[in-house]
Amino acid sequence: MIKKGNQSIQAYLHSIKSLADEISLIDHPISEDDLTLYILSGLGTDFREIAGPIHARERPLAFEELHDLLISHDVYLRRLEASSHQLIASVNYTHSRAPYGQDNSFFKTPTKPHSFDRSYG
Questions:
Q1: Can you give the pTM of this predicted structure?
Q2: How far from the centroid of its chain's Cα atoms is residue 58's Cα?
Q3: How far is residue 32 CA from its own chain's centroid?
Q4: Using one digit for the tens of pLDDT, what is the confidence trace for 42-79?
Q5: HEC readout, the chain
């Protein structure tokens, strides 16, 4: 079984489609349903959100439809990852600035609670 692993989704789909085309040349064409199941089985956890609904379809997807869905999902995942990296960088920048002095004392947790002298006499 071919697994996506570290390949791009484009390279993964191309390798499976090439294999399916070679198999059909020896007079054993692979059905769209089997091809879809084979592709989804090798994707990994990044694509599990989209794999479930594709498995549940009553009508199998043509390779081109599956290709377009997976490419779109990959673009979505990349945007999501980029925005989370941007958010982390922004948070790190905010915490590294020292708005109330050079030592960032505003963000430090007090090490000793305040004690009050309750003796009045």
A1: 0.66
A2: 26
A3: 26
A4: 998 889 999 999 989 889 899 999 999 999 999 999 99
A5: CCCCCCCCHHHHHHHHHHHHHHHHHCCCCCCHHHHHHHHHHCCCHHHHHHHHHHHHCCCCCCHHHHHHHHHHHHHHHHHHHHHHHHHHHHHHHHHHCCCCCCCCHHHCCCCCCCCCCCCCC
Q: Phi and psi dihedrals of 21, rounded to 5? A: -65, -40
> Does 108 score more than 90 pLDDT?
no
Distance CA 100, CA 52 (A): 51
Tell me the CA distances in angstroms from 46 to 14, 39, 99, one per residue in order: 18, 13, 40
CA distance linking residue 35 with residue 16, whole number of Å: 8
On the question of pLDDT at 103 being above 80, the answer is no
pLDDT tens-place string over residues 61-71: 999 999 999 99
- Lookup: tokens for 71: 């490419």
